[in-house]
Amino acid sequence: MTGSRSSGGSGFVRARQRLLERLGAQGITDRRVLDAFRAVARHELIPEALQLRAYEDTSLPIGGGQTISAPGVVAAMTAALELTGSESVLEVGTGSGYQAAILARLASRVVSIERLPRLAAEARRSLDRLRVSNVVVHLGDGTAGRPSDAPFDAIIVTAGGPEIPQPLLDQLAVGGRLVGPFGAREEQSLYRVRCTGPLQFERERLGRCRFVDLVGAHGWAA
Ligand code: SAM
What we know:
Elements: H1 10-25, H2 31-39, E1 60-63, E2 66-68, H3 71-80, E3 88-92, H4 98-104, E4 109-114, H5 117-129, E5 135-139, E6 152-157, H6 166-170, E7 172-183, E8 188-197, E9 200-209
Parallel strand pairs: 3-4, 3-6, 4-5, 6-7
Antiparallel strand pairs: 1-2, 7-8, 8-9
The structure holds S-adenosylmethionine.
Residues 66-69, 92-93, 95-96, 98-99, 113-116, 119, 141-143, 158-159, 211-212, 214-216, 219 line the site of S-adenosylmethionine (SAM).
């Protein structure tokens, strides 16, 4: 990615509108979620060579063997968090910063953790460029969460791990929701976990998915 960016012409506006229609057809009906997708310029967060594909419902490479998730997946996971605007949210796996920019419009503050230094630095720059001021990006192993900022009303894990990291469950507020992909390396199930009381959790399986590896102390080995 480079510092100079296209501001987005009518082609991007039309492509984003088509994406919104697709998200609606896929069952994303929450007006606030759709408004967030209308507002965030995905083409600003991916390598310039791929900009023309920014509003396809597909994951795209962002370097370091990592991807920006497909908009449909980002939308489904975001909707599953049931954000109302007041929440403190933890994201594990900042990647491009796209999911963080969407969450920033739907919650009060977002703490996002990325393990790869280049992606963390790039995402910080992108979020600054988009004037997103309520996201803090930290470099580190997100499977440990961020105890100093806990508890979180919502936690989203955007890489696939073998199981739900216990530190993340420990950092979920009562009433909070955790959404993420867990299971085998080749394919995971997308789960939503609700914290229904102190040390009490209810787990729902939302569907099948495939994510890049969640690498860390409570994830896969590097
Ligand atoms: N949310 C991102 C976006 O909007 O572009 C997409 C994330 S990409 C599918 C998964 C990201 O998780 C990668 O950037 C990867 O480096 C990161 N990751 C993997 N394991 C991690 C960990 N333990 N802590 C923090 N980030 C991790």
